[in-house]
Amino acid sequence: MIQDPWWGRIGYDKTIDPKTINIYGTTNSPFWMCFSPPGISGPKGPGVSIYVRRDIPGLLAQYSDSLPPHPDVLAVDVIYNGSLTTLVNVYIHGDNKRYEEALNHLICHPYPSSHPIVIAGDFNAHHPNWALEGSKWVDNHPNPNARLLDNWISENDFHIFNDLTMPTCIGRRGQSDSIIDLTLLNSATVDAFEDFEWTCKAEGAMGLDHNIILWTISLHIHADGTTDTKPPPNFVIDLEIEDDWTSCFDFLLSLAHLPLDPKTPADLESMANGILQAMTQATQDTMPQKKQGKRGSQLPWWSSKCSKALRELKHPSDSRSRDVRRAALRGAIRRACKSHANKVCKAATVGNIFRYTNWYKGKRWAPLPPICFGGGLVTQPQQKAIALTDKFFPKATLAKVLLEPIGIPLSPQRPWHSITKEEVEAALADLSNTSAPGAFGTNYQLLKWAFSLNPVPILALYNGCLTLGYHPTCLCNAVIAVIPKPNCNNMSNPKSYRPISLLETLSKCLEKVITQRLIYESGKFNLIPHLQFGGRDMTSCINAGLCLTHNVKAQWALGKHVSLLTMDVSGYFNNIDHARLVYTLRRLGFAHKICQWLISYLHERTAQPKIDNTLCNLINLLAVGIPQGSPLSPILSSIYSIPLLRAIQDPQVHTYAYVDNFSILAFSHSHSANAQILKEIALLANETLQLLGLEFELPKSNLIHFISQKQQPSNAKVKIPLEHGALNITPKVVVQWLGFYLDQKLNFQEHIRYMANKANAVLAGLQMLANTVRGMTMRHARILFISCVQPILTFGLLLWFHGKLQKSLSNPIQKAQNAGIQWLTGAFKTTPTTALHHLASIPPIHIYLHRLNTNAATKFRALPKLAKVSRRLPPSWDTHNPSLPYPPKPKSNTTITPSPITRLAALSHPDAKFQTPYLNPPWRPDNPFPGRLVCAFPPGGSLKNCQEKIAENANRLINALAHKGTLVGFSDSLKESEVAKFSGGIGPCANIFDAKMLALALIAQRCVRFARSHNIQKIHVFLDNLAAVRIINRTKPHPAQYASILFRKEVHAFLRDNPRRTFVVQWIPGHSKIDGNKRANRLANEGLNLRPTAFFNPTSTPHSKTVRKHIPRPLSLKLHPIFNNPSLPCSVSSCLVHVMTGHGWFGEYKDRMPFIEGSHKCPCGKQVQSVPHLLFLCPLSEDSRKNLTNVAPDLNPLTLFGSTKGLEADTAPPSPV
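Above: the chain's sequence. Below: its structure in token form.
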């Protein structure tokens, strides 16, 4: 129990306000539970905290309901083997206002007398009843607060247990010793602990003016009935013992005797339980148990020097003062922490560097504080679970939901197709092995092993669930993890938390398979209006932002006033009506088996909240809502909201939806008229939602009036009538919408400033991982910058960046990037940023933004033709909707910025080849002929060292195949006798990849025809383009998709006609002395002089000329090999940067920078210490110079700093003498 604990910055928050960037907290340890007064987040910390060891068997601790938490008064219930004792930590400050608040909080609440209560702390009060014997306080008259405290102690039957001969506070600077730290026991404590053993000593006080007070509590008869809620053991999934786990799982599965052809729901229950129990038992039998931390175990950073300093403080061996020894301990701990962090960062790898970003986030595990419920506070985990779930999940539906179409057209029912092995494999491939498991404790890594070993039981279970329309009960339970919401002060309010459902991985895999089918059918048959930008594929919030910005600028061009109203659906996921959802699915034509299974899946679901590491009792959920942790939640919620999107058909509004976010864009002759339109549409939308059993959370709505250059700001409010009066929604200057910060003029200045602030906050946290001397290497720091900082800086750039006269807009993010590059290179702030961008292989921000723009432009032809962005493309595009207003092209001398869709479309071409989505349903594999249709390519990784060996093996294979009746092809030439050849051009708008894909498709077509006519059963094609070999048989949208369609049509028909036929596409290295490949290259060169085939002119790459206007040379985004070396310490890489840029701790640099103090002379006596002098002339550097002369005898700087060998010599350690 600590009074006035340390409180300081423990991390950085990713926030838009630089004033709130710091995260504050107190000391934390993995071996202790830290109890602090909740709700304190500022720099002024609490006055008390209590630490309880985690690893003592039978010891539990929780916030007490005997006394509400206060910044200076904290009560904790300690339960030892069922014996309850309440500990109250008190710190009464010397400040009068805070003194009275804490004292009143302590004495104004009743305390139960049924169990022991110990109140201890610093009371800062003197009274004769607890004065030190022989001190002046024995005869002094106490002040009113001391008398009030003494009266309260006697009236409430508390006893002072201090030894009045032992001072608790040591007087300093003329003060006398005294007793102000009291230990108060109620009568139940006196009766329960006969050997309380109260002691007070200076040892361990770390030089403070307050002594350490120790007392002992033990088992007693006052038990609270709390059972031992010790959490189940956790196991470490060790990838190296996969074979042991799979063998054990296979054996246990064989003992289960699962019914592989389930006929009844009982069979499905048996199968699901058998698989889960086999996985769980195999884990317990083979995997090592996670260590909980033994008592007395040292922290990983603790060193022998820390132990020595601690012994010196406890048992002095010299005459040094206690303050000196205390400072020595602090210094030893500080150095040990830095040394440990440096070792960890140096040993980081690409696979684990993101784990260390948690260091700066200030995350601390702490028990949930008391939760308000039933007019009081609840503290036990089970009580907290009831209080939280009462708020998380609805008690009943808001209204009776009508099963009527409400604008949903009736579609014919589509057939059901069995779940395939390929579907499950694709679902598992996208799932993370580190995802939190459900109640059985099995994660996706174990499920992948189980399915890879024996897919039959899992496939039988999944297909049985859909065939019988039943979901096993054991898969309907969810573990509810409670996550605190950010920036909430009242942590006793259940609304300050959000639930996360942790479902069984065996169930989530099935849900993901069904999700992919729902998404496919929704997109294939246009079931969900394209106004919904969330919960579906091939769209995002960026697309919604593009449409909104385009619509605003289009209406401005027509002289209209535009206003936006954003609204959120209250408790969307938890209030979806099951009957209405299934009715909607049936109406949309989904298979009967999916609807029947979904009824069972949503029926009689249960939840188990996990509070303070305790898995609480099951809670039955009502027949409403869908689990938020399920893959089904986004797509089902989007389907459920279809009536809302179809109900609004007003020519003066545009609507946008992103799952539970609904927005209305109104335009008319004035903002006042817009307010009236928004009111009517909001009421209509709310009425429609009420028919679905939902409603908007209208008080959280935001309103903004956009103003063009010629328009004036408006304060017109939207007045929405409610049952208890009207709600006035006042317009704002800036509103947050889908992560964008929209201002009235739509120039995005606030958005850019906020993004720069968030990026700077993240960068401030990353700086603890590396500096110029120690920490992560430059390679790993660059990865963190590109992954964690750049996406924040560039979020939303498509809405505002067009590259002309935007220096003021891009400056904030350029400055943030400059700071990041200075950090990752270890450079000085004065170093020219142009050089740093080159050394870090990171382009300046304006070039990078141009690159992202051109990348986005290439995706326009991959969007569905009915997508809202596609319908707003220029009139020259075939997807353009002429009924929508289109902004005119701005004049060259105008300051009006163009629509972002218009601008991005100018970077592409209307004749670019359209990429067709939804060609292949998910239940039909891309390769329906496994073993017969093979696309052979080497595994991922570097191919430079093995290309010659691959070429040799390919030559031997070609010679062997040619004598076995196999048709062998090289793009357009054949081995042995050449039976066909082809050369042609495909136009200037295509690239090499287009040519390779088309050549592969054409050779497949001609080989198939030749094989059919000559009764050849085997075809083997060689190609020197790895990307083409990888994707030639894929159906998802990709560049040169037309070639894949032609290839699949010819090859699949060839293989379908005869089961003995095979077709192999194999990659070979280019320019590798393979005769057939040489012949193909000659034919390709001949095709350059031929007239291009007109049909193949429109490819997916006609925007390349436009790209070269902004980026004349291709960017070198690959880090230089010398800096890409993971073994190069950051101290060496930063020193190399200092030398190459001339900005380092050199005398010449100090002489140039007047703000740096210090001599500019070289220690050798040279007047000015310059970089050339250090490298080439200084006699003190003679030994190190030998490395340089070995590479460049003439010490040519071009060799030393312009070649890899020279840079390796620059960074090599000195040669031994």
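The radius of gyration is 36 Å.
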